[in-house]
Design brief:
single chain; 431 residues; alpha/beta; Sulfite Reductase Hemoprotein, domain 1; 2 domains; 17 strands; 45% helix; globular; metal-binding; isoprene biosynthesis; 4-hydroxy-3-methylbut-2-en-1-yl diphosphate synthase activity (ferredoxin); iron ion binding
C-alpha cells in the first residue's frame, strides 16, 4: 500500500450552498429552486410572443426536452395580451411548465395594465438596471414588486453587466476612488453587480416580497468574471441563485464557455438553477440549450435526465462509420423515448449504454455499462458482441445490428425498470 495515502479519495462535488427555497408554481406543478432542491434546468423562447401559437409550440418542445421552467419575452402591450392565450393553449396540450415573464423598461406598466398576463405567469424577471431612471427607478421597481406580492409570484432579480444601473455604478466608483488603494476597474464592476443584486433584493423584502420568493442572478459573458461574481454573491447572501453566461456564444464556443463556468461553480456547491444561453445556428432546434444544461449536470453526477451513451472517439482502428451512426441513433432514440419512459419506467435515466468501435476498449467498456455493444473495427471479425450487466448475452451480425441492438435496449428497459422490476428485485433480495 502507498504510505502517502492517508485517506480514501472520494470523487464528488462540495456540499451545496445553503439557500432559501423558492417555489415556481402552475396548477399542480411546483418547481422548487434552492433550499436543497435539485439544480433546475430552464430555457427561453426566441419566438415573437405576440405569435401565441408559435410561442406555445416552442414552449411545448422545450418542455418535452426537459426544460422545467420556460421564460418568454413580455415587451409590448401586444405581447402581454398574448400571454394568457399562450398559457391557455399549453394547458389544453397538457403542458404545465411554469412560465416566466421577462420584463425590461416597461414591466411596471404591462403588469398593471394586463392583470391576466400577471396572473398567467408563474414568475417575473426584473432587471434593476433598466426598470427606470432617477426617481422613477425606485417607484417603478416598487410597483413591480407590489404586483408580485399581490399575485403571489416569485421574482428573479437579474442584474446584467451590459445594463447596470448607472447611478449605482457611479456610487460604487466614487467609493472606490475614496479608497487609499483603489481597486482595479474589473473589481469595481464585479462589486457593482453584486451590490445591485443584493440591494435590490433587500428593497423587495422591505416592500413585502418574502425572501424565499426571490432568486438572484448576476450575468456576465466571460467565464472567469462569472466565477468570481457568483463566488462572492454566494458568500454574501442566502437567496437562491440562477447561473448562466449572459451571451455564451455560438456552437462549440458557447457550449465550452458555459460548461467551463458553470461546472466550476456547481462543483463548489454554488447555483440552484441554470440556463445555457446559446446563440442558435440557423435552423437549429432551440432545445439544444436544454440538452447542454442537462448534460452538464448529468456528467457531473448532480442529476440524471436520460440514459447516457458512452462512445469511443474513433481512431485508425475504426475506419467504419458504423459505430458513430449507431451511437447517434441510440442517443437520439433514448431522448425521444424519455418523455414517456420517465413516467412508465422510473430510474431508466440512470442507465448507461456503451457503443464502442473496436476490440481494444470495446468489451471492457461494454461490460461496465448496463448494456454495451462492441462493434468490429478495421480488419476485425464482422461480429458485434453484446453485454448486459457485464455478461455477454449474444453476438450480432449482418445488416440489422442497429435494429436488433435497439430491441435489446427496449427489452432491458421493460425488464429492469417496468412495474414488476422493483417487486422482482425485492423478492430476489429477500431470497
Amino acid at each position: 500500500m502507498n504510505q502517502n495515502a492517508t485517506q480514501p479519495v472520494m470523487p464528488g462535488s462540495m456540499p451545496r450552498r445553503n439557500s432559501r427555497q423558492a417555489s415556481i408554481v402552475w396548477g399542480d406543478n411546483i418547481v422548487t429552486i434552492g433550499g436543497g432542491a435539485p439544480v433546475r434546468v430552464q430555457s427561453m423562447t426566441n419566438t415573437d410572443t405576440v405569435d401565441a401559437i408559435g410561442t406555445a409550440i416552442q414552449i411545448k418542445e422545450l418542455a418535452r426536452a426537459g426544460s422545467e421552467i420556460v421564460r418568454i419575452t413580455v415587451n409590448t402591450p401586444e405581447a402581454a395580451a398574448a400571454v394568457p392565450s399562450i398559457r391557455e393553449q399549453l394547458d389544453r396540450m397538457g403542458v404545465n411548465t411554469p412560465l416566466v415573464g421577462d420584463f425590461h423598461y416597461n414591466g411596471h406598466t404591462l403588469l398593471h395594465d394586463y392583470p391576466e398576463c400577471a396572473q398567467a405567469l408563474s414568475k417575473y424577471r426584473i432587471n434593476p438596471g433598466n426598470v427606470g431612471k432617477g426617481a422613477k427607478r425606485d417607484k417603478q421597481f416598487a410597483e413591480m414588486i407590489e404586483l408580485a406580492c399581490r399575485y403571489n409570484k416569485p421574482v428573479r432579480i437579474g442584474v446584467n453587466w451590459g445594463s447596470l444601473d448607472q447611478d449605482l455604478l457611479a456610487r460604487v466608483m466614487d467609493e472606490n476612488a475614496a479608497r487609499a488603494q483603489p481597486w482595479p476597474a474589473q473589481s469595481v464592476m464585479v462589486e457593482a453587480l453584486i451590490t445591485s443584486a443584493i440591494e435590490s433584493a433587500r428593497k423587495a423584502e422591505e416592500i413585502g416580497l418574502p425572501g424565499d420568493q426571490i432568486i438572484l442572478s448576476c450575468k456576465v459573458s466571460q467565464v472567469q468574471e462569472l466565477i468570481a461574481v457568483y463566488r462572492e454573491l454566494g458568500r454574501r447572501c442566502d437567496y437562491a441563485l440562477h447561473l448562466g453566461l449572459t451571451e455564451a456564444g455560438m456552437g462549440s464556443k458557447g457550449i465550452v464557455a458555459s460548461t467551463a463556468a458553470l461546472s466550476v461553480l456547481l462543483q463548489e456547491g454554488i447555483g440552484d438553477t441554470i440556463r445555457i444561453s446559446l446563440t442558435p445556428e440557423p435552423g437549429a432546434a432551440r432545445e439544444k440549450e436544454v440538452y447542454v444544461g442537462q448534460e452538464i449536470l448529468q456528467t457531473m453526477g448532480l442529476r440524471n435526465f436520460t440514459p447516457m451513451v458512452i462512445a469511443c472517439p474513433g481512431c485508425g482502428r475504426t475506419t467504419s462509420t458504423t459505430f458513430q451512426e449507431l451511437a447517434a441513433s441510440i442517443q437520439g432514440y433514448l431522448r425521444e423515448q424519455m418523455p414517456v419512459w420517465k413516467n412508465e419506467f422510473p430510474g431508466v435515466e440512470e442507465m448507461d449504454v456503451a457503443v464502442m468501435g473496436c476490440i481494444v476498449n470495446g468489451p471492457g467498456e461494454s461490460k461496465h455499462a448496463n448494456i454495451g455493444i462492441s462493434l468490429p473495427g478495421s480488419g476485425e471479425s464482422p461480429a458485434a458482441p453484446v453485454f448486459v450487466d457485464g455478461v455477454k448475452v449474444r453476438t450480432l451480425r449482418g445488416e440489422n445490428i442497429a435494429q436488433e441492438f435497439q430491441a435489446i435496449v427496449d427489452e432491458y428497459v421493460r425488464s429492469h425498470y417496468g412495474p414488476g422490476a422493483k417487486k422482482q428485485a425485492t423478492q430476489e433480495a429477500a431470497a
